[in-house]
């Protein structure tokens, strides 16, 4: 082990209390510390934050971290402060700060105390901030949730588009670290291009989740009864059921309750108090099931979610992967069950009708992948990983027999001699 390696390990222990790096973290961190442009692709929960936090803490100067969600930035800042000697080690710079607070942040940066400065992309458009940041030592720029830059991503944010120009204005040769959990080749290409770092060293973790079992069932009139049966067979286990509409969420939660299942609804139409209450009930195991729209899940860290059911098929494979990914975080069993009917695809198509043409085209292409996934007779895992640019061999790969198509192969309906695939 070289001295640098020992140093990284002791820094890991000192700042975060961990004794091992996870996955590719150490290699990534070495690359960031060396001042290279770096592109990190890891699944959610893979430990991306540490890939910029640790280098920031040991580098000279301040690292700027761009992140789209104020709540997540605040969480990270609090966590870093909790293990640091000086509160000024991490700051958030945003529009909610008053003059005195901004002055304090600037002071801490200038005096070299601040190692991590979190900013929302829209704050970076403020001349005053950019002019100030030009005058101080910036170690590197981390762009978290970098897929927000791509229209092909599931969470496009127009403000992310200007980042390249802004970074250049802050400094000509600031190393850039892009991080995302979106693994589609199209989005990756967009990120590298939009951030202006074609030569970035790319680190990509596998997206395989070997402990998740993937299953798609045809959606018929008896879908509710089918779900009730499934949930009852899994009594006492934690699960999430995703529905497309708030109305369906309410209905299904009620149907489950009437059938003696501990279930609560969650969607953006409920008042904040109720949402927090239902989320807490789930975390504290006062309820087994949350029936929810996609508003539920971001940042929810419940390790023992045993099943994720999609009452309605999601609008992209990425959404499906993210949502099912909330099952089995602890490495234990995780059953991912999706109901599919083509008319639901048509419904999703209709939702896009009013949107700009370019957006509709992208939405349509993403949906076609969902159709292919739902209707495929090849391994679901193989399909998902292929979508993310990964080769998977069901014979040798972990979790190779963990989906319906592998366990119960469909009969080849069109097995005529003259048919070539
Ligand atoms: P991501 O941003 O990739 O979704 P996070 O950075 O939020 O992931 O990290 C996910 C979890 O993994 C956090 O709880 C974090 O504390 C933990 N973690 C990160 N690195 C390590 C490590 N080296 N050892 C143990 N836990 C880690
Ligand atoms: Mg993250």
Automatic annotation (TrEMBL):
- Organism equals Winogradskyella eximia
Q: Which cofactor does it need?
A: Zn(2+); Mg(2+)
Q: Which terms are listed as keywords in the entry?
A: ATP-binding, DNA-binding, Helicase, Hydrolase, Isomerase, Metal-binding, Nucleotide-binding
GO molecular function per UniProt: 3'-5' DNA helicase activity; ATP binding; DNA binding; four-way junction helicase activity; hydrolase activity; metal ion binding
Q: Which residues form the Helicase ATP-binding domain?
A: 29-201
Question: Is this entry keyworded ATP-binding?
Answer: yes
Reactions the enzyme catalyzes: Couples ATP hydrolysis with the unwinding of duplex DNA by translocating in the 3'-5' direction
Q: Name it.
A: ATP-dependent DNA helicase RecQ
Q: Where is the Helicase C-terminal domain?
A: 222-379
GO biological process, alphabetically ordered: DNA recombination; DNA repair; DNA replication
> What domain of life?
Bacteria
The record's comment on protein family reads: Belongs to the helicase family. RecQ subfamily.
Segment of the intact protein contained:
1 to 421 of 733
Transmembrane spans: none
Report one GO cellular component: cytoplasm
Q: What is its EC number?
A: 5.6.2.4
């Amino acid at each position: 082990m070289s001295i640098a390696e020992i140093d990284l390990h002791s820094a890991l222990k000192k700042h975060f209390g961990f004794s091992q790096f996870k996955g590719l973290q150490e290699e990534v961190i070495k690359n960031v510390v060396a001042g290279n442009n770096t592109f990190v692709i890891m699944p959610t929960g893979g430990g991306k934050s540490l890939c910029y936090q640790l280098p920031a803490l040991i580098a000279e100067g301040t690292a700027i971290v761009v992140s789209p969600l104020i709540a997540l930035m605040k969480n990270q800042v609090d966590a870093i402060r909790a293990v640091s000697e000086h509160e000024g080690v991490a700051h958030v710079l945003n529009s909610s700060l008053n003059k005195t607070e901004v002055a304090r942040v600037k002071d801490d940066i200038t005096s070299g105390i601040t190692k991590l400065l979190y900013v929302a992309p829209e704050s970076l458009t403020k001349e005053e901030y950019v002019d100030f940041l030009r005058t101080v030592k910036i170690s590197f720029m981390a762009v978290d949730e970098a897929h927000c830059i791509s229209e092909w991503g599931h969470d496009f944010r127009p403000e992310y588009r200007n980042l390249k120009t802004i970074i250049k204005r802050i400094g000509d040769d600031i190393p850039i670290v892009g991080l995302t959990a979106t693994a589609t080749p199209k989005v990756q290409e967009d990120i590298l291009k939009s951030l202006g770092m074609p030569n970035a060293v790319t680190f990509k973790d596998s997206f395989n989740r070997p402990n998740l079992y993937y299953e798609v069932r045809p959606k018929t009139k008896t879908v509710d009864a089918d779900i009730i049966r499934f949930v009852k067979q899994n009594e006492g286990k934690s699960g999430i059921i995703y529905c497309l509409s708030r109305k369906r969420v309410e209905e299904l939660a009620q149907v489950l309750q009437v059938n003696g299942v501990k279930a609560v609804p969650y969607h953006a139409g409920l008042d904040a108090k109720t949402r927090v209450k239902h989320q807490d009930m789930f975390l504290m195991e006062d309820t087994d099931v949350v029936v929810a729209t996609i508003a539920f899940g971001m940042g929810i860290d419940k390790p023992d979610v045993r099943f994720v059911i999609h009452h309605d098929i999601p609008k992209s494979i990425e959404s499906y992967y993210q949502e099912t990914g909330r099952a089995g975080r602890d490495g234990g069993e995780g059953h991912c069950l999706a109901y599919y009917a083509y008319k639901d695809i048509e419904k999703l198509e209709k939702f896009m009708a009013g949107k700009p043409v370019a957006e509709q085209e992208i939405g349509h292409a993403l949906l076609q992948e969902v159709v292919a996934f739902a209707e495929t007779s090849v391994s679901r895992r193989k399909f998902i990983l292929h979508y993310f640019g990964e080769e998977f061999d069901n014979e040798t790969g972990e979790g190779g027999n963990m989906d319906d198509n592998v366990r119960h192969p469909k009969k080849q309906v069109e097995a005529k001699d003259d048919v070539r695939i």
